[in-house]
Amino acid sequence: MKDNWETYSEAPQDENSVEFSHPDLPSEDSMFVHPSNVEQCTQSTSLYTQSLLGSQDFEERRITRRALKLLNELKRSQTVRDPAFSLEALCEGSTRSQAATTFFSLLVLKKQQIVLLHQTAPYHDISVTPGPKYYT
Length: 136
Description:
- This protein is mainly alpha-helical.
- 51% of the residues lie in helices and 9% in strands.
- A hairpin with a 6-residue loop joins strand 2 (115-119) and strand 3.
- The radius of gyration is 33 Å and the shape is elongated.
- Residues 4-11 have low confidence and may be disordered.
- Residues 85-133 form the Rad21/Rec8-like protein C-terminal eukaryotic domain.
- Residues 1-29 are annotated as: Disordered.
- This is Rad21/Rec8-like protein C-terminal eukaryotic domain-containing protein.
């Protein structure tokens, strides 16, 4: 039995058959990268990375600033007899966007253990109480 290559090469050529040509391989000289090109690419990538990190830092500072603003409002309006707050009461009269920002700020404060959040059931009001780091 002949192998597949020999069988293929002995097959009759059809008039309508298409010949495939393979691209030439690049020369060895073209495979070298000029150092100035590498340096330029590295610098532009570095600037892009710094820009992304800078925007992330800015976003984190903005989120933290909003959370601290909410914390100051909570501390200012807190009463001695009832240290708990209601998310519904905090968002009363707010737009949806403002309510979402308040909720997100509460999650940031929860992550930092400044407040504790409790919800009795899905879609019920969320109660906010001072956490371990609330008074520090």
